[in-house]
Structure formats: structure tokens, C-alpha cells
Automatic annotation (TrEMBL):
Keywords: Ligase. It comes from the Bacteria. It comes from Achromobacter agilis. GO terms for molecular function: long-chain fatty acid-CoA ligase activity. Pathway: Lipid metabolism; fatty acid beta-oxidation. It is a peripheral membrane protein. Residues 436-508 form the AMP-binding enzyme C-terminal domain. Its EC number is 6.2.1.3. The gene is fadD3_2. Pfam families: AMP-binding, AMP-binding_C. CDD domains: AFD_class_I. The keyword Transmembrane helix does not apply. This is Long-chain-fatty-acid--CoA ligase. GO terms for cellular component: membrane.
Amino acid sequence: MQLPYSTFSEHLDALAARQPDAPLLIDQDQPISAAALRAQSRALAAGLTRIGVRPGQRVAVWLPNCAAWVESFLACAYLGALVLAVNTRFRALEVADILGRGQADWLVFWPGFKGIDFQGILDGVAPEHVARLQGVIALAEARESPVVHGKPAHRYADLLATEEPAPPAQGNAGVLCFTTSGTTSKPKFVLHDQRTLLRHGAAVAGAYGYDAHSCVLASAPFCGAFGFATLVGGLAQGAPVVCAPVFNAAQSAAAARRYAVTHTYANNEALVGMMQAAAPGDFASARLFGFASFTPALDHLLDLAQEAGVPLTGLYGSSELIALAAGQPRDPAEGEVSARHQPGGALIYPDARVRARDPATGDILPHGQSGELEILSPSLMQGYLDNPEATRGAVTADGYFKTGDLGYTLTPRQFVFQTRMGDSLRLSGFLVNPVEIEQVVETLPGVSACQVVGATQAGKIVPYAFVLLDEGAQADPAGWAAACKAAMAGFKVPAGFAVLDAFPSVESANSVKIQKHRLREMADALLASAATPPSP
């Protein structure tokens, strides 16, 4: 499927002309037709113009999955403004970073959403980070009047009611910035233009089998690459996208039945929750549910999917390549189907390519050998906003994106993702995926979850295990080490075990991500302490 348009306004015009009454969005059980979405986004564009939003300005959109998020994005695309997508989970430091480093000119937010103290969060942002802001737009009731560092405040509903027509539509330009997760450094702003996003939506619709009867459930936030890819695939096809401001597993399962949902894409934790909460028959219409493995310990996902009759496949994507850039095939004609329940996939663009490079030698590796994945794809970002040096460092001379992920190829277009390169371990000369060790440790008595990192001991890298215990269980480091020695090569056996109440983590748009760098620091400190003789 290819779209003849390079801007969202052109595509929305075509959809509204072709299927004006067909729902494009179902927001909290309220269907919004193509014609209505076009009218609302154009009215908002007129209102934004009236208060001073201009082409090239940057609009931070701090909203959950709702019609206002989609309308705000489409209005900015129409005006040639750039959307800085902000996660509703973010708090003062993270919001300050996006508003400040992202150089936001405007902020759209929902003061009363989910009981979050947005006003308090914004009050906690230092004035220098909002110095550039020209004003805020609030989804607020008439009696509410948010005050953000003295900036002019405008009600979203008032902008929609603007009587002046919208100005002429702008052409293709940078329109959306995702933020990287920033687990080890400050997030980068990943810039995409309209043509790339629309083309990707069309590629998603074609690769995952959308047709006139498709219905897509948005299980991830639109502010992240995962959720946005879900949205843009539906928009490209003209298939309805079902969304709600807050993800609820039971409500999502019920929505799948109510709207005959055919496709959804989620992290495996969310899918497990949906399947556990579902009533028999909720997923009868399912054609393909895709998962990204953010929580590898949830290995019962496959059993639940089989019980529910849900066709399941592994996915891959990133902010830089956009999510759903690859999905494991279920048809032998499309690739190696034995990998369908592993993260990664066959690239959805026919001309896309993947390779693995040995991080030590720089050599391109044969199929089946693990190295850093490099991907050539039409979905590649325009670059990192305001950061040309990082952009140059992210792409090879022949145009491949250096993913920073460990994996191996099966063909020039299909691969398996294993872990982040920074989380992989070089042990005794071998490149080891820590998940191998974690899965063994998680079978040991008393262990409910495990994270393994590389730590330094006597000048070499060794694995170190952090565990969470089952309720009432006692730690048994000696017993665990003995069991690991019996099950694994000696260089994979953890040099130590530490029990935690919870793993350190940071929230991203798609999931809660464990901060491995903090665990590495803790492991180094524990090993150093153990090696230091007691004072006399």
C-alpha cells in the first residue's frame, strides 16, 4: 500500500471525501468520523493561528490518548508546526528538559487528567526552561484558568470555536519529535517529517494485513513511537483506531469484543493483562496481536495467547526507525516462521535491509551470529533535533542506522532482537545475552525475577545477579551459585547475588524500563566491598 500524499492534510482531505462518515477514531466509546476529525483539526488550526502559532514553531503536546491528541497533531501538521510529544507520566525534571532543550513555543495539556497535579508539576519547572513559551493551551473547564509561569493561557474549546478559516496548509516538513528513553543519558529528540510518517503508516497497514474491515486497538501511548505507529497505520488505511486516556486491561479486552478489533500492538506485560482479564470470546475477531518484549520474564504470554485463540507475533521498532518497522512472519512465504514468538521480525519495507556487525572487529557477521544490528529503512528519522553530531554518529556511511541492539540476522530482511548492546556481556571472550542467565536464575527456588549485569572483578567483566524474592522466600546465594554451575558454562555463573525490593527503573512512553546502568554501579560497589579486607 502506498499513499500519493506527502502531508497529513492532503491525506485527511482524501479520506473525508472518500468515506466521510466512516469512524477514524473511537475515543472513550465516542466514534469520530473522517469528516468530523478533519473539521475539528482544521478548526483547531484556525484557533492556533489566531493566538499566534506559526510554521516552524514547536508545540509540546502533553496529553494522553484522546481525540485532542490526534486533533492537536493534525492541526500542527496542517500549520507546519513541530509537535514535541510529551509522556503524561513525566514529571517536573523531565517536562523541564523537553520544554527547555526542546525549545517549546507552546504547550498543550489537560490539567484535570487522571488526578495528576499538572499545575504543580509545571510550577516545579524552573523559569529558565519556560522562557521561550509564548502560551499554553489547556483542556480545561470554563471555571478553570491554569496559570503557568505567567504565560497567556487559552482554553482548547475556545480555539475550536474560532470562526475565522484556517490559513492555507503547509507542505511537508518536520512534524513530530519522539524522545528516546534516556535510561543512561539525557533523552534525544528524534525528528520525523510528514512524508516519512505517512509512508510508514501505509507500510504498516500493508504489512500487517489491514483492509476495509480492520479495527485497531491503541494499547500504547500516542506520544511514543509504538503508539504513534499504531495510530498512523489506522489513519493511513482509514481503519478506526480505538483509544482511551488510560490503559485498562479489562476495558481493553471488552473493547476488543465491542468493536471487533482485528489488530493491536503492545508490550508483553499489557497483553498478558488483557488476556488474563478477558472473557471467553473477547478476541474472536483478532487477526494479529503483536508484542514487544519489554518484560522477558513473562514467558506465559504464549500459553495465554493460545488459550485465547490470539495469533501472536514478535515486533521490533525504535524512535529512530518508528515502531512496527519489523514483525516476525507467520507465513513461510514471508520468512522464517520458527522465530515468530521472538522479538525482531521481517522488515516491512521490501527494500529495507538488516545486518549484524561484530562490535569488537567491525566485521559484518554471517546469519545466526550475534552482533550490533544495523538497519537500512525508509522509515529512518530526519535526525536528532538540534544535534547534528549525534545524528552523524547514529548512521553508517552507507545509510544504515546503528541500533545499539544486540541480535542476529536470519536473512537480509529478517532478524531476532536479543537485548540492548549496553546490556550485553562480553564474558571470557564470548558475547552473551544476559537473558540467558536471567532465565536460569528465575527457575531457582525462591526467585521471582532476575536482572543480570556485567561488573568488574579483578580486572575482568563478570556477571552479577540481582533478584526479587517470592513472598516468604529466603535468599540462598550459595545454593543458587551451585545450581547455576550445574546448568551453565562457568563463565556465565553470577559472581554474586543481591536481593532487592524492586529494580531501579525509569518510565518511558511504552513501558517501565529497568535502569541497568544503576545495577552495574551497584554490582561494582558490592564486588569491590567484598574484595576489600576488613580493617584491623
